[in-house]
Amino acid sequence: MAVVERHACEGCDREFSLDNLHAVTMPGGSRAVCCPECREYAETVTDNGSDIDQRRRECDGCTEEYLVSELEEVILSDGTSVLCCDSCAEHAPSNDGETDPRRQEESEAETAAELESKEPSKASRQRNLCQQCNDWYSIELYRVVTVDDRTEKFCPDCMEQARDDGIIKDVRMRRAEAYEVLGAAGFEDADDLRDAYIAQVKAVHPDRADGSRAEFKRVQAAYDRLQDEF
């Protein structure tokens, strides 16, 4: 397998092949090396002191990744401070235990406009970028750990190719697969999830005559994948 030289984008700090990086002249004359996504953003930056910071963080609600600037701080009813995407912030209880009507109204207006345009939101497009082929996908991508300890998101084709090439050390189970392994389309709460987990563990435990160590590990991985959502 040919070694492709890679370099970190100065906006999001993700690594890309040199062919997919672009030099952008920033306000003031400085130059930055950007991936296609950050390049589009960088070229819109004006002289108001903005930069190309594209740091990302998981939403504390749905655990999907967003730009830090796109997350909203929400103070929960117990005083806990969390960072949420627009959707999770809309449903998060405020200090008085109620959803903020103003935030809900704004969110509904944004959703209506998005549906009317029939274009995916910027946040949605960003979290579905395969970091290997740099194509956009509307499906949940595989989160993989490469042999050099980089965590990236791969589309199914790139994941299989990378696995064949021997450059993947670990693959995180996707949400849909986790639900399938635990035999449910969804769970009401953490107790419901744990009940399904225990039932599947009993069914496939290696100590059973018809048990399977491989299936037992899949059940454990599915539970680990979903338990942070509750």
Automatic annotation (TrEMBL):
<feature type="region of interest" description="Disordered">
    <location>
        <begin position="92"/>
        <end position="123"/>
    </location>
</feature>
<protein>
    <submittedName>
        <fullName>DnaJ domain-containing protein</fullName>
    </submittedName>
</protein>
<dbReference type="InterPro" id="IPR001623">
    <property type="entry name" value="DnaJ_domain"/>
</dbReference>
<feature type="domain" description="J">
    <location>
        <begin position="177"/>
        <end position="230"/>
    </location>
</feature>
<dbReference type="InterPro" id="IPR036869">
    <property type="entry name" value="J_dom_sf"/>
</dbReference>
<dbReference type="Pfam" id="PF00226">
    <property type="entry name" value="DnaJ"/>
</dbReference>
